[in-house]
Amino acid sequence: MATEPERRPELKDLEALLRSSEERPLADFLEEVHPADLAEWMEELDEAEALRVLGALHGENRTELLSFADDSVRESLLPHLSAKELTNIVEGMPADEVVDLLALTDEETTNQVLRKVDFERAAGLRELASYNADTAGGLMTSEYVAVGEEAHVSDAIKEIKSEEGPAGEEEVGVFVIDPAGLPVGYVSDRELLTTPIHTPIRDIMETDLISVPANADQEDVAHLFRKYSLAALPVLDPEGVLIGVISSEDIHDVLEDEAEEDILRIVGTSPREQTKLPVLVRVRHRLPLQALTVVGGLVTAYLLGRAFPDGGDTTDILRYLPIIIGLAGNVGIQSSTVLVRAYATGELSAERENSVLASEILVGCLIGLVCGTATFLVASYMEGSGSAPNYPFGFAIGGAIAVSVSWAALLGCLVPFTCERIGIDPAVVAGPFLITLSDISGAAIFVFVATSLGLSG
Amino acid sequence: MATEPERRPELKDLEALLRSSEERPLADFLEEVHPADLAEWMEELDEAEALRVLGALHGENRTELLSFADDSVRESLLPHLSAKELTNIVEGMPADEVVDLLALTDEETTNQVLRKVDFERAAGLRELASYNADTAGGLMTSEYVAVGEEAHVSDAIKEIKSEEGPAGEEEVGVFVIDPAGLPVGYVSDRELLTTPIHTPIRDIMETDLISVPANADQEDVAHLFRKYSLAALPVLDPEGVLIGVISSEDIHDVLEDEAEEDILRIVGTSPREQTKLPVLVRVRHRLPLQALTVVGGLVTAYLLGRAFPDGGDTTDILRYLPIIIGLAGNVGIQSSTVLVRAYATGELSAERENSVLASEILVGCLIGLVCGTATFLVASYMEGSGSAPNYPFGFAIGGAIAVSVSWAALLGCLVPFTCERIGIDPAVVAGPFLITLSDISGAAIFVFVATSLGLSG
Which of A4, A182, A255 is facing B256, going by the closest CB pair? Predict the structure, then answer.
């Protein structure tokens, strides 16, 4: 993807260097690596390796690494940084990033760092930290350039130069504010570059401003950026005073995260990068939907039992069919959606493919085991006569569910994986095709296993 | 959401003005409206009204309206614009927008317009039009500022001023290219503003450039923007020569559209703004998944009939249960997903809520009718003896399916709608809760209707 793909350093180059004990080549190598790549690679390193990388980085490079790093990498590195080192790191970081970073440290470290940074900046950071991360206040930076209505282009440029500290505020043009602090106009950097410097700012400023209150939901903020094709969005306090600015780049993550959240919630799992979580956590995230399906299916089986009291063995098996149809569909769509999205967002890199596939299949089988056991227990009692549970029947139904759910999970993982391999967009096939395939084969396996396990039709 | 929400003009103000016949107040009113708002309102106007609005707009305002308008609005307006008017409109439009707009006109009009615009620009536009819309080439603009390696800051600024035509290229800084046209560096507008003008450009340019080939998929382009927090991305031809630039704002739509596509495909419907399509088109988009489910369910029913040949009436009804469990889940999740996403992306505005709700319910009922009829026909023959179809049985099963699918569609629409009304995020409830609810109630209704229609258990 890069200009000269063959020259760009890769994770395996770093791993090779980490196996040697020399520090010099490591530091030289890291100079050549884009901090965004390094931040991604850090997720694959163990703690000792990650600390060696951190030790080989200095100044701006540390700041950039921590700016690009995910929370998981930040959390593993932060305990190893002194308050002084952390102060140096945040010095060169945009204010909104600093707030996100300090939110991961303990209160004492945060206070130590805030005491060391410039007084005015510390006040701004404390203010920023008070906003909910999912709101406009949580996205904005308080470090931007604003000038009064009487300013000329030259004043705006002077103001930019004076504000340009090591931190570097967002590069989002200049806002024009009235004496009360209300935004009345906006001028882009490009406009400043192309206008004679003695021009009054009010002659060139754009006055039809779109803005948001600080408590606006980040999803609404993203809509405004899309709808109005904004480069920057001013954030206001309840009096309408300008208190921060959100940039277009800040919105990329919001758009992706919000869509991701909706997708994963629709298929009944937690809105987090699933493939990076431990297997048991994934099982826990997805069990509520399956539990609901099992309960629903058991209620259906019970009601059908009341409707057809003298149905015989065949009817008894078929009454439990809704459980497996529901479960097979859910388990399959959860696994396939998690994989489809992991491919789509780039969460799933080639080197992780096999281990992610194996772990997803394991997640599905564990869910099958839990649901099968639960059904075994309930069905044994439900189909028992009086106080004597019918264990053979329960075991046949529970075992059949465990087997066919595992099968559905296997399908749900292998279908998108195979599609990706042979070059078909997995999203197209994973939905409809998969649901139907797992419905039919799940039902067939269920009936086959249930009858083999002791209930002949 | 705006600075002074009570003052911002609304659609109903426009509609009131359109009811009067005076032109003057309409033109004055439109001066106050943001073109992005106007573009959205145009979707709600009939053709005569839309043309009156277009007639009241001139110059830059027409260009902006067409820049912000959706394809549906563009398609309705374009036939009413002469090649000359269209030429004036595209004059002030970024090149990537022009290409998208001209793609909607017939070839003759396109050629007329291209003959009227500046020769160099026409060549660039023809080149841009040759790229697939879903690739880096389809997203980029060919109008950006580039300077040689020997340039100074003053040269870069001079170049920006000279390029700044009425069209206004993307405001994405300046790229530095070597004599062969390969990009070697990048300088932001902010950097140019804050650096003394006699500084050599190579002293301040960023050299660690990320770039893409023109045929890169737009999804991969969006990943690069997110991963590297880019403000602009250079696009290269196969020789590595810089041929275009993609800006951060271009990516918002890509991120949203790609996620949307995946979501809607996962639930088995077409990746388009569903709530804005006619009812029958929506039915057509969703039927393939339902047809697959019906076929799968009928196969299951057939196999179960072979496994349990002497089951009697009860077994015969229960063998068809998988169809309704599958259909009820699919129909419910399609409608709820369409509504959840329409709320989330702002596609569903308050004034459209009731009509969208009614049309979605209608879509579900029509799908129920089609699936019920199909099942009626197939089941009649499948359960008939010899050549005599069993119509009463088929009717009972088909009717039960039509009723319970309609019920599931009703649930799938009302649950997210009610959540939105009472302030719960519909995405949380719409998935798991809905699937289970429609499974159980769908199965219950199916059995009840099937038995009432002539098959007692």
Answer: A255
- Taking residues B278-289, what's their average pLDDT? 83
Whether residue B169 has pLDDT greater than 60:
no
Considering its fold, how many domains does chain A have in total?
Answer: 3
Q: How far is B37 from chain A (nearest CA, A)?
A: 8
Within a domain: B260: no
- Same domain flag for B200 and B57: no
Tens of pLDDT, residues B221-245: 998 998 898 889 999 999 999 999 9
Compute the distance between CA of residue B121 and CA of residue B87 in angstroms, rounded to an integer: 12
| Dist. CA A140–CA B252, nearest whole Å | 18
Per-residue pLDDT at B3 = 44
Cβ neighbour number for residue B58 with a 10 Å cutoff: 12
- pLDDT, greater one: A350 or A169: A350
Are B64 and B164 in the same domain? no
pLDDT higher than threshold 50 for residue A1: no
Compute φ and ψ for A127, nearest 5 degrees.
Answer: -60, -50
Answer whether residue B253 is part of any domain.
Answer: no
Between β-strands A242-247 and A232-236, what pairing exists: parallel, antiparallel or unpaired?
antiparallel
Using a CB–CB cutoff of 8 Å, tell me whether B226 touches chain A. yes
- Chain A environment of B183 (Cβ under 8 Å): 3
* Predicted pLDDT at A238: 93
| Domain termination residue (choose one: B193, B218, B248) | B248
Q: Is residue B178 part of a domain?
A: yes
Q: From the list A259, A307, A444, which residue is nearest B259 (CB)? A: A259
- Which of A44-58, A133-147, B435-449 has the least mean pLDDT? B435-449
**Same structural domain for residues B153 and B200?**
yes
In a domain, A253, yes or no: no
- Clarify whether residues B359 and B296 are in a common domain: yes
**Residue A424 touches chain B, beta carbons under 8 Å:** no
| Pairing mode, strands A145-148 and B212-213 | unpaired
Contact at CB, A267 and B431, closer than 8 angstroms: yes
B129 and B174 housed in the same domain: no
Q: Tell me whether strands B183-187 and B174-177 are parallel, antiparallel or unpaired.
A: antiparallel
Round to whole Å and give the CA distance between A14 and A26. 8
Q: What is the mean pLDDT of residues A326-348?
A: 81
Q: CA geometry: angle at B424 spanning B423 and B428, to 5°?
A: 160
Range of the domain at B163: 145-248
Contact B182 A3 (CB under 8 A): yes
For residues A150 and A122, state if they share a domain. no
A132, pLDDT greater than 80: yes
B344 contacts in A (CB within 8 Å)?
219, 258-259, 262
Q: Which of residues 73-112 of A touch B (CB under 8 A)?
A: none
Q: What is the rounded average pLDDT of the residues B288-304?
A: 83
Tell me if B301 sits within 8 A of B323, measured CB to CB: yes
Q: Identify which of B226, B172, B246, B187 has the alpha carbon closest to the alpha carbon of residue A249.
A: B226
Q: Which residue of A has its CA nearest to B451?
A: A307
Out of B99, B116, B136, a domain closes at B136
Digit-coded pLDDT (tens) for A380-424: 988 887 778 888 888 888 998 999 889 988 988 888 888 888 877
Instruction: Confirm or reject contact between B308 and chain A (CB < 8 A).
Output: yes
Chain B residues lying within 8 Å of A253, measured CB to CB: 226
Does A388 lie in the same domain as A278? Answer: yes
CATH of the domain at A374: 1.10.357.20
Q: Which residues of A touch B178 (CB under 8 A)?
A: none
Whether residues B271 and B385 fall in one domain: yes
If contacts are CB pairs under 8 Å, which of residues 31-70 in chain A contact chain B? 34, 36, 40, 68
For residue A452, which residues of chain B lie inside 8 Å, CB to CB?
none
Contact residues, chain B, for A183 at CB < 8 Å: 3
Q: Where are the alpha helices (DSSP H) in B242-320?
A: 248-266, 279-307, 312-319
**ipTM score of complex:** 0.78
- The verdict on B344 touching A (C-beta cutoff 8 Å) is yes
Q: How many C-alpha atoms does A402 have within 13 Å on its Cβ side? A: 16
Residue with tokens 């209704």: B445
* Mean pLDDT within B9-35: 84
CATH of the domain at B23: 1.25.60.10
- Rounded to two decimals, what is the model's pTM? 0.78
